[in-house]
Amino acid sequence: MPISLIRYLPYIIGALAIVGSLWYVVSAIHQTGRTVERAEWLEKEKAQTDAIAKSMGEAMQRVADQNERNSKNTMEVLNAKDQAISQLENDMRAQRAANRGLWITAKACGDNGAARGKTKSTGQPGDAEPIRLPEDVERRLRDLAETAQRLAIDHNACVAKLAPLVEIIADH
């Protein structure tokens, strides 16, 4: 049997050479195809990455612009609030300086602790005689009025601060 194999040895070597050559060519074609496909895939991935980077840059710019507007709005609101509080303090100071007391008519005043004897007569017949409120009542009423004004100032500041958010929500 070995002698018969030797006789077919050139045919076997030739067939193996043909199969090897075919395998080499097919492998090279396959590798070239993979390289081309990989290049196309990388190109598509790069295009997607560039699009994402561009949209991220635009989004970041919009956020930076919105932050700048918010910061500017906050400063404007705080400045307006500071001015309103300063005006309120000036008004309260002026009112305290010109304090001639708080007065109520005797008709409206019952036995609730109003200072008796501190009355001012208008001299008009039928007019109710005014009575000055006690100092602690005056002080509490002024404190209450000042607190109410500060609350109104804070409310207006909150409205001014949150107004841009209404515009943002309405836009989207």
Please supply descriptive tags for the structure shown above.
single chain; 172 residues; mainly alpha; two-stranded antiparallel ribbon; 2 helices; rod-shaped
Name the structural class.
mainly alpha
Estimated share of beta-strand residues:
under 5%
Rg on CA atoms, Å: 46 Å
Order of helices and strands: HEEH
Give a quick account of the main beta sheet: strands, pairing sense, barrel closure.
2 strands, antiparallel
* Distance from first to last alpha carbon: 88 Å
Assembly type: single chain
Low-pLDDT parts are none
Output the strand order for the largest sheet.
1-2
Please tell me what the overall shape is: rod-shaped
Mean pLDDT across all amino acids: 83
User: Number of helical runs?
Assistant: 2
* Record field, number of beta strands: 2
Approximate helicity band: over 70%
Word description of this protein:
Helix content is 77%, strand content 3%. A two-stranded antiparallel ribbon has the order 1-2. The mean pLDDT is 83. The chain has 2 helices and 2 strands. The longest helix has 96 residues, at 2-97. Helix 1 (2-97) runs antiparallel to helix 2. The chain is mainly alpha-helical.
